[in-house]
């Protein structure tokens, strides 16, 4: 992972501040945590190398360390290359640089969080608990998704809906995360039903897809809406849904999901107009429901 992303996942050098101590790093008198999976072994090689002073000089190792953007940072104005005599100093400075490389960014994050939550209160939670409260759980419980599901154009007891949930049950947590990105533009669910704030997961089945087995599912991430063709069997539904969640990654590229597998346009202009009318109608209904609290 590089740096911190929108889902609370952070660079190793940032995680090092909060993770349990790494035994190898401690032996080197390093700061807490796994500094970097490749960085530490490289420093250990330098520290434990049994080469002679002459052999070390012949390696011509620069007294620098790469930063997050790949640029070499000179660690000392006193030394230009690593030698047998200064290698311990190099290891110390290299680890220190890596651990404090993002001090400015971490300080800015801390300042921003302090404007929302008093910083002393954060000590009441573990890192995982805080991440879950802010971002939701990385585990995606289907019972929670089912509890907020509503259906349009199909009965909840229909074979198609049963197949859909059976396929979702068979998905790995990673695939469920991809599914959420496809239908909602996020990769985690809120923690509780109350955290959905009245937003339902809508499954809509339309008969405009003909033949249905030649079409992919569609989604409208703004409305947490999944549109399904009336597939003929569970196997076809699983195949099309997996294709959609793995390859239809861009938000708002509606035409991408309306292309028939033959490569030809899925519908003519009149059909596209009809589809837009469906979306507008649903958007209007959803907006009204949201405003009225239904």
From TrEMBL:
Domain HECT: 34-254
Domain of life: Eukaryota
Active-site feature positions: 222 (glycyl thioester intermediate)
Pathway involvement of the protein, from the record: Protein modification; protein ubiquitination
First-tier enzyme category under EC: transferase
Cellular component per GO, a single term: cytoplasm
Repeat found in the keyword field: yes
Keyword Repeat: yes
Catalytic activity: S-ubiquitinyl-[E2 ubiquitin-conjugating enzyme]-L-cysteine + [acceptor protein]-L-lysine = [E2 ubiquitin-conjugating enzyme]-L-cysteine + N(6)-ubiquitinyl-[acceptor protein]-L-lysine
SMART domains linked: HECTc
Signal peptide: none
EC number(s) recorded for this UniProt protein: 2.3.2.26
Membrane-spanning parts: none
Record-linked Pfam families: HECT
Name of this protein: HECT-type E3 ubiquitin transferase
Region (Disordered): 264-294
Residue ranges with Acidic residues bias: 266-280
Organism this protein belongs to: Eleginops maclovinus (Patagonian blennie)
Compartment(s) of residence: Cytoplasm
A GO term for molecular function: ubiquitin protein ligase activity
Keywords annotated in UniProt: Cytoplasm, Phosphoprotein, Repeat, Transferase, Ubl conjugation pathway
Coiled-coil regions listed: none
């Amino acid at each position: 992972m590089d740096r911190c992303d929108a889902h609370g996942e952070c660079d190793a050098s940032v995680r090092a501040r909060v993770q349990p101590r790494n035994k190898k790093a401690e032996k080197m008198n390093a700061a807490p945590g796994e500094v970097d999976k490749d960085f530490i072994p490289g420093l250990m090689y330098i520290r434990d190398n049994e080469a002679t002073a002459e052999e070390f000089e012949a390696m011509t190792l620069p007294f620098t360390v790469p930063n997050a953007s790949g640029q070499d940072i000179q660690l000392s104005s006193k030394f230009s290359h690593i030698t047998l005599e200064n290698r311990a100093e190099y290891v110390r400075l290299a680890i220190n640089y890596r651990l404090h490389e993002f001090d400015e960014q971490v300080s800015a994050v801390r300042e921003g969080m302090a404007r929302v939550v008093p910083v002393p209160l954060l000590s009441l939670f573990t890192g995982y608990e805080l991440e879950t409260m802010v971002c939701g759980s990385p585990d995606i419980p289907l019972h929670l998704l089912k509890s907020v599901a509503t259906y349009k154009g199909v009965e909840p007891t229909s074979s198609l809906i049963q197949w859909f949930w059976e396929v979702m049950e068979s998905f790995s947590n990673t695939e469920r995360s991809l599914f959420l990105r496809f239908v909602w533009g996020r990769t985690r669910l809120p923690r509780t039903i109350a955290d959905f704030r009245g937003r339902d997961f809508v499954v809509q089945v339309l008969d405009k897809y003909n033949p249905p087995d030649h079409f992919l599912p569609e989604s409208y991430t703004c409305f947490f809406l999944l549109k399904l063709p009336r597939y003929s069997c569970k196997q076809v539904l699983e195949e099309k849904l997996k294709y959609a969640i793995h390859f239809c990654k861009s938000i708002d590229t509606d035409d991408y999901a309306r292309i028939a597998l033959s490569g030809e346009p899925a519908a003519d202009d009149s059909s596209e107009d009809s589809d837009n009318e469906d979306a507008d109608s649903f958007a209007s209904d959803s907006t009204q429901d949201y405003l009225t609290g239904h």
